[in-house]
Amino acid sequence: MSNPYEGDSTTSVPGIKGTNTTTGEESDKPQTVTVRSTVTETEPSRTAADLRTEFDSPTFVGASAASSIAISRFEEAYRARPPWDIDGPQPDLARLLDAGFIQGRVLDIGCGTGENALFFASRGIDVTGLDASAVAITRAQAKARRRGLSARFIQGDALQLATLGEMFDTVTDSGLLHVFSDQGMQQVIRGIHALLRPSGRYWLMCFSEHATLPGPRRLTKQHIATLFKDGWQIRSIEQAQFKVICERDHDEGDKAAAAWLAGIERL
What we know:
It is a single chain. The chain is an alpha/beta fold. The protein has a single domain, classed as Rossmann fold. The protein is built from seven helices and nine strands, in the order E-E-H-H-H-E-H-E-H-E-E-H-E-H-E-E. A seven-stranded mixed sheet has the order 5-4-3-6-7-9-8. Strands 1-2 form a two-stranded antiparallel sheet.
């Protein structure tokens, strides 16, 4: 299927680069998508948006200790509308921002089509959204322009975060870490540690052991504690819930998208 979205293209490289959407020149550093004008954005057609993706299927074989979910599967899902691609930020992350816990320079990893990052930008946060899906990033950039928000969206590999070459005060993760294998998780965590300033905070939102939606791994409190035992201090872990697209016939009760929300300080 061809890409149904209009907007600036992204630069896909082994590391992470950006394209200045004003001049069209490439730079070794990602560029800010600063919105000053209106452009045409074509969202998925209603038919495409209503189609169930493979992530909706109860038989979907997702991540495990030995295997991650391939980027190509997310790329295909974003050509329609995956169940987590809601209209607006995840409520638990919005609550964190309102409470003042998301601050400084923010990196939103696994940003998808940008709703969390755009919400942060609407509150004056200096935010960069990163995702491996070119389709998702194209949509995020177009949303930013349409809404008149200054935000930066770049296509990049979460397994190579250190190549970004920048430092951040806060990193947010709404459903990224739990799509990786054990080895992949360790790579992502090392990358976050490399670009997060000392005393910076990593906000992790992941499926808990009570989640019933298919795809990502289910993490327990103990598993999270083990992952972050070296170079980190877990400041909080609380129950949370991923909001999903309700018309997909998902049960949105406590067990449907049950999650942990952890605040983890970089030492």
